[in-house]
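Quick one: structure tokens for this chain, please?
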Amino acid sequence: MVETFNLFANDGGGWDRANDRDGYRHKATVIGERLGAAKLGATLYELDPGEATWPYHYEQGCEEWLLTVSGRPTLRTPDGERELAPANSSRSRRGPRARITSSTPLTSLRGC
């Protein structure tokens, strides 16, 4: 059986959580959990302009990837900053990751 859900549906789809902390306002939904997956790790995030998901992300257990769905995020890593465009993707190794901000509305998918 193939599981599906529509994040934007009015039938209980919607976002799993929202963060209202100043400077870090975002909405998120964990895709794997929504699909009933045990080993799939991916989260869809939506940020308003000027917001970030966290101050600086650090991951010990896995490599992480990011796919820009819409918007133009700024990706800050230990190597500096760069702007990504829709459909751009990036990969981070274990350890210090990144800080992601955007001057435009942003939707991104991240997983490991």
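The first helix runs from residue 31 to 34.
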